[in-house]
Amino acid sequence: MVRTSSLSRQEEQVCRLISSSLDSWGIKHLVRRNNIIAVNKNYNPALKTLALDAHIDTVPANKGYTRDPFSPGDEKDIIYGLGSNDDGGSVVSMIAAFRHFYEAVGLPFNLMLVLSCEEECSGPNGARWLYGEGGYFELEGELPMPEWVIVGEPTGMKAAVSERGLLVIDAQAHGVSGHVARNEGVNALYIALDDINVLRQHRFSRYSELMGEVRMNVTMIQAGKVHNVVPESCDFVIDIRPTEQYTNAEILEELQGICKSTLKARNLSNRSSAAGPCSELLFRVKAMGIETFSSPTTSDWMLIRSDAIKMGPGDSTRSHKADEYIRVEEISEAIDIYISFIEHFYGNTVE
Predict the structure, then answer these.
(1) CA proximity to 114, closest of 134, 135, 104, 133
(2) Residue 238 contacts residue 255 (beta carbons within 8 Å)
(3) Predicted structure pTM score
(4) What is the DSSP string of 101-123?
(5) End-to-end CA distance of the chain
(6) Distance (Å) of CA 102 to CA 27, 49, 128, 178
(7) Short-list 20, 36, 38, CA closest to 28
(8) Residue pLDDT tens, the chain, 351 long
């Protein structure tokens, strides 16, 4: 996989590679829009379904690489390369766990493998299409929406039981152009600065016991073309990391009420996610003594409408960085934990 380029929206080759491997192991599967979906051999439509979900795409290699990003290296205990940690480790670990149970008899639930595309760009053909309203699981009729999903991301096999959403707002302050020598116009930059100060001091009232406060930062600003003209507009960008206490639409409405600038959300669907108190997945995580945490990063979980947690091998701090790697022992450990989780999930008895 490392040797095969798999940039978001360009996953055809790695999709074929994985599909060919599944064929060689006798695992029947579907390929839809560069997503791979498989269910256990003894699939029973009358039973609920647990899905193992990881993504096969990568970000581009950054300029800091000192190694070939498409070479896994020749060390026995480390696999280097672009996508090795995010999300190749989860992909191969989940495939191995799925293979372990593929022909199992006695599972009180179905087991599904979902290897999706376009996670890194939150594109329209990956999880957004698979799990979305009017998407694959809802309309295609081949397989139903899984009731439970383990999202494979590099968490060190700790279980993220919640994750912040993402709301990016493009703001524009409106003024009136004028010549500075004559003290004309209304300076849009000053309007923007006033709004930014208001945003900097603003605190959202609803506090999340899982994630704390909503986090918000102004990260970009641009105004003016020449030094002697009062700018008639000023654009700035607000990066917000919501909790489960707010919908993105509620946050946008609240901020528009305190700002003079016009606010426009790039996307309202990147919501915060959390396993509910009655989550079967959360119950099993606690029963196994797996450490839990709240994740500050987003994933395909925000697009999944099922009971879900996020758990996979590797370290999130290595993701999207130069000389990315994952340790072989991290993958081996993940396989064992996934297998144990499935063996004991939902009153399970496996023959």
Answers:
(1) 135
(2) yes
(3) 0.87
(4) HTT-S--SSEEEEEEES-TTTT-
(5) 32
(6) 8, 13, 26, 71
(7) 38
(8) 999 999 999 999 999 999 999 999 999 999 999 999 999 999 999 999 999 999 999 999 999 999 999 999 999 999 999 999 999 999 999 999 999 999 999 899 999 999 999 999 989 999 999 999 899 999 877 899 999 999 999 999 999 999 999 999 999 999 999 999 999 999 999 999 999 999 999 999 999 988 999 999 999 999 999 999 999 999 999 999 999 999 999 999 999 999 999 999 998 988 899 998 899 999 999 999 999 999 988 899 999 999 999 999 999 999 999 999 999 999 999 999 999 999 999 765 444
Q: By CB neighbour count within 10 A (0-12 exposed, 13-18 middle, 19+ buried), where does 347 fall? A: exposed
Helices within the chain (DSSP H only) = 12-24, 89-101, 127-131, 188-201, 248-256, 280-287, 328-344
For the record, the structure tokens of 157 come out as 């096999």
Give the single-character DSSP code of 281: H
Q: What does the alpha-carbon distance between residue 104 and residue 289 come to, in Å, rounded to a whole number?
A: 25
**3-class DSSP assignment, residue 296:** coil
Separation between Cα atoms, residue 17 and residue 93, nearest integer Å: 16
Q: Are the C-beta atoms of residues 82 and 58 closer than 8 Å to each other?
A: yes
Long-range CB contacts for residues 71-78, cutoff 8 Å, separation at least 24: 71/2, 71/3, 72/2, 72/3, 76/328, 77/327, 77/328, 77/329, 78/325, 78/326, 78/327, 78/328
Chain length of the chain:
351
Structure tokens at 198: 């208001």
